Amino acid sequence: MYSTCCPVRALQLIKTKMERSSFVWVFLLLFSQASPSSAYIEGLYCGRENCYDILGVSRDSSKAEIGKAYRVLARKYHPDKYKGEDGTEKFQQIANAYEILKDDDERRDYDYMLDNPEEYYGHYYRYYRRRVAPKVDVRIVIAVTISVISAIQYFSWWSRYKSAIDYLASSPKYRIRALDQARRDGLLDTGKRKSKKSKEELKEEEDKIVRTIIEENADIKGGYRKPRILDVLWLQLLLSPYYIIHYIIWYVGWIWKFNILGKEYGLEEKYHIIRKFLGLSQTQFEALDEFEKKEMLAKELWIYENFKEYKQEKEEEMKAKLAESSRHKSYRRYMKKNGVGRMYFED
């Protein structure tokens, strides 16, 4: 095979081939360790042991046969009866094998691992997916989550509404009006009935009457309005099909009435277009001052060209106010000296 006239060259070729072959064997050995072709993987299911062999059953055994085999072995190797050194370890191994094989889904995954040993990482995924996933039904988790959110919503709305009533009841302007109405309606105690009560009782009764009158007469809008049970998340989700159908009917009616027939906008439609141009929600728009809303109607802001001019005017007014504001001037001076892009040489 090699020429006799060049023995040194022949020896070098033999050495090179031996080095290459040894490298290939080392690579194959490392690869076999990284991705074992064996059906048993350390750390998964029963490790290097076969779960069926541990219980002494076959893959064709029924769940009843597996349970019977487990009870026999569990009595035999129970730590209270079996006194061998490996008793505890053997009992845990039997219990682990039974837990895997008694569950139909996990047994199916284990059989798939035995039949497809090459899907090394896929077995890890299926094994830990089942153990990390919650045991509780997902529907129950979703229902509880929605219920908690609904409760938090409702009570937070009541808290904001209560704070608004407290503010109005403590404001002299609204408190005096409420007391005047209470006197006209004869709700306040006078004369002998009043003298029999202490100052604290009279104050408490007066506060209660004032709050009641304010709640009945105050028109609170926006985020501090009185909460409605229909606004909570649960009922909104249950009523969502109705809202969707109602919106489709409204949208089709809008196109037919104004785009096709060309009718003029009413007051509600004008407010709707203005609110959309402003980018406000219904709650935010309701919180605006009535004078401001009438000003928007007077300027015909439902027409987009008029709205663009109005928006530009507001931006110019805001710039003028900021230019005159001493606080804004000091902020601009600070940003000029210490803002983004400045270079510092301080310690």
Automatic annotation (TrEMBL):
One BP term from GO: protein folding
The entry's keywords: Chaperone, Coiled coil, Membrane, Signal, Transmembrane, Transmembrane helix
UniProt-listed InterPro entries: DnaJ_domain, DnaJ_domain_CS, DNAJC25-like, J_dom_sf
Pfam families (UniProt xref): DnaJ (PF00226)
Coiled coil regions in record: 188-215
Membrane topology annotation: Multi-pass membrane protein
Transmembrane segments: 138-157, 232-256
Predominant cellular place of this UniProt entry's protein: membrane
GO CC list: endoplasmic reticulum membrane
Compartments, record wording: Membrane
N-terminal signal peptide: 1-39
Residue stretches making up the J domain: 50-114
PROSITE patterns noted in UniProt: DNAJ_1, DNAJ_2
Record-linked PANTHER family: DNAJ HOMOLOG SUBFAMILY C MEMBER 25
Sequence similarity: Belongs to the DNAJC25 family.
Protein's UniProt name: DnaJ homolog subfamily C member 25-like
Organism this protein belongs to: Acanthaster planci (Crown-of-thorns starfish)
